[in-house]
Specification:
By secondary structure, this protein is α+β, with helices and mostly antiparallel strands. The protein has one helix spanning about 60-70; strands spanning about 25-30, 30-35, 35-40, 45-50, 55. It has one domain: Roll (Ubiquitin-like (UB roll)), CATH 3.10.20.860. Strands 1-4-5 form a three-stranded antiparallel β-sheet, with no helix packed on it. Strands 2-3 form a two-stranded antiparallel sheet. The longest helix has 12 residues, at about 60-70.
């Protein structure tokens, strides 16, 4: 089951807030919600081509949050290590 997400870009021309790099539309994976890490695949975002910072449309994040709050299908689970330097 795929969650519907907005297909429009965040803007026609966007420059990264952290470096002078331009952003490009991409599909990314990962989402944090209420302190938990979820692997949410195929999420539309604008990603800086220089430093990799991701920008998400607010409606996309709201839609993912609503999806995670509901009973939702789980494709799989992962075990991850958490480390501190």
């Amino acid at each position: 089951m795929r969650i519907p997400v907005p297909t429009r870009r965040l803007s026609t021309k966007m420059t990264c807030d952290f470096c002078p790099g331009p952003t490009r539309p991409r599909r990314v994976t990962e989402h944090r919600y209420k302190g938990r890490l979820y692997v949410v695949e195929n999420v539309p975002a604008e990603v800086c081509s220089e430093c990799g910072v991701r920008y998400f449309h607010a409606s996309t994040l709201d839609m993912i949050d609503r999806f995670l709050e509901s009973d939702h299908p789980v494709k799989g689970t992962l075990q991850v290590e958490v480390v501190t330097l």
